[in-house]
Amino acid sequence: MTKLGQWLCGFTLLGSAWAVLALAPPGLQPPAPYRQALLPLPVYLLVAFGCYSLATVGYRLATFNDCEEAAAELQEHISAARADLRRRGLRF
Q1: What is residue 91's predicted lDDT score, i.e. its pLDDT?
Q2: DSSP class of residue 58?
Q3: Which of 77, 60, 61 is nearest to 69 (CA)?
Q4: What are the b/e assignments for 47-78, b being 16+ CB within 10 Å?
Q5: How far is it, in rounded angstroms, from Cα 87 to Cα 89?
Q6: Which of 2, 20, 59, 74 is the most exposed place for a label (fewest CB within 10 A)?
Q7: In the predicted model, is pLDDT for residue 24 greater than 90?
């Protein structure tokens, strides 16, 4: 099973559990305080996931490593490509 399949399976399981509890028939409904906390739960989880994603991207961006060797190699490739293009008659 792919990672996407695992995530979709988890969301389906959690969503169906939420739907059973939130949309229960009147005789099987949870007490009022639980129901008031249960109804906006998907919105809270979505906001929490957004905050986690933003924090993860910010942390990864702040700790991004520079690759000095790769940058030098890339500059060499660019210089070689420009020299080849000049040799073929292209002007920059």
Answers
A1: 79
A2: H
A3: 77
A4: eeeeeeeeeeeeeeeeeeeeeeeeeeeeeeee
A5: 5
A6: 2
A7: no
Q: Distance between CA atoms of 35 and 72, rounded to whole angstroms? A: 60
N residues, the chain: 92
Look-up: residue for tokens 């293009």?
A: 85
- Which residue type, as a one-letter code, is found at position 24? A
pLDDT at 73 over 90: yes
Give the type of residue at 68: E
How far is Cα 34 from Cα 22, in angstroms, rounded to an integer?
Answer: 10
Which amino acid, 57?
A: V
Read off the pTM. 0.61
d(CA 18, CA 24): 10
